[in-house]
Amino acid sequence: MTKRVLMFPGQGSQKLGMAADLTEDIRELTRDIDFDVTAVMAEDETRLNQTQYTQPAIVSHSAALLQSFDAEYDYTIGHSLGEYAALVASGVLKAEDAIKIVAKRGELMANAFPAGVGSMAAVLGLDYEEVEAICNEISTEDAVVEPANINCPGQIVVSGHKTKIDELVANGKSLGAKRVLPLNVSGPFHSSMMQVIADEFRSFIDQFEFKETAVPIVQNVAAVPETSVEVIKEQLIKQLYSPVHFEQSIRNLIDAGVTEFIEVGPGKVLGGLVRKISRDVTISSIETLEDMEGWKQS
């Protein structure tokens, strides 16, 4: 019997004009957000690429599509930010609450450090142990760089103080990497530096109702299916300052018998990562209502 997982993208998947066919649904879902999410999606690329606006935009896109998804699935997973849409799909959070939470999350992440303090970069061509060894070698007591997103074989994102990220970008080839590409982000996301916002974020999410899971979620921190609400909440806090173990999550899902991976939301980034992890699974992308209809008919 086929096992199916719904996947939800994170930051970096946004693009101007996204979710144009879902405008009314998104307006309804974001009526308590203090800016016009649909206007930002349609016409304000500058704000769309700023963390505090990106996060509610991406999650509302995925959540709006979910309202039209009526097939069964066995697991959910999100990449970083996408974990909140996965919680909606798993029945843990209401869509409106997930969007409110990521709006606050984005605001805290964007304002955690002054501009130019933290950064991230993609390291290509090395495995996790090699990247971790390089990070340990160049980090100091006052300035760190750490693995942040373990995405697929040969693609690992690092995060930390910008001075160390710049050093790694400049010296990456001599350290053995094929390339090290700086990312256009405003902070050291998924690094230990982000612990500074953990307590405030914990206090914020405590006001929302987290229901029992209808479908297990594979969270970024542990990479295994989870159903405990207490563990889910704790791992949402840890996710702020811990690596995203996406590759291991996908491998664990395949080991659990999953053969169908469906990406719901903007872009096809996660499908591309899964394809690099395994060629033996079926991958689909649902970005629009038209895609949804096409998938249902296939």
TrEMBL record:
Coiled coil: none
Single GO BP term: fatty acid biosynthetic process
Reaction it catalyzes: holo-[ACP] + malonyl-CoA = malonyl-[ACP] + CoA
InterPro entries (alphabetical): Ac_transferase_dom_sf, Acyl_transferase_dom, Acyl_Trfase/lysoPLipase, Mal-CoA-ACP_Trans/PKS_FabD, Malonyl_CoA-ACP_transAc, Malonyl_CoA-ACP_transAc_FabD, Malonyl_transacylase_ACP-bd
Active site residues of this protein: 80, 190
Keywords: Acyltransferase, Fatty acid biosynthesis, Fatty acid metabolism, Lipid biosynthesis, Lipid metabolism, Transferase
This protein's pathway: Lipid metabolism; fatty acid biosynthesis
Malonyl-CoA:ACP transacylase (MAT) domain segment(s): 7-292
SUPFAM superfamilies (alphabetical): FabD/lysophospholipase-like, Probable ACP-binding domain of malonyl-CoA ACP transacylase
Top-level taxon in the UniProt lineage: Bacteria
EC number(s) on file: 2.3.1.39
One Gene Ontology cellular component annotation held by this UniProt entry: cytosol
Gene Ontology molecular functions: [acyl-carrier-protein] S-malonyltransferase activity
Pfam families the UniProt entry points to: Acyl_transf_1
Lipid biosynthesis recorded as keyword: yes
PANTHER family from the UniProt entry: MALONYL-COA-ACYL CARRIER PROTEIN TRANSACYLASE, MITOCHONDRIAL
Family that this chain belongs to: Belongs to the fabD family.
Protein name: Malonyl CoA-acyl carrier protein transacylase
Organism in which the protein naturally occurs: Macrococcus hajekii
Lineage: Bacteria, Bacillati, Bacillota, Bacilli, Bacillales
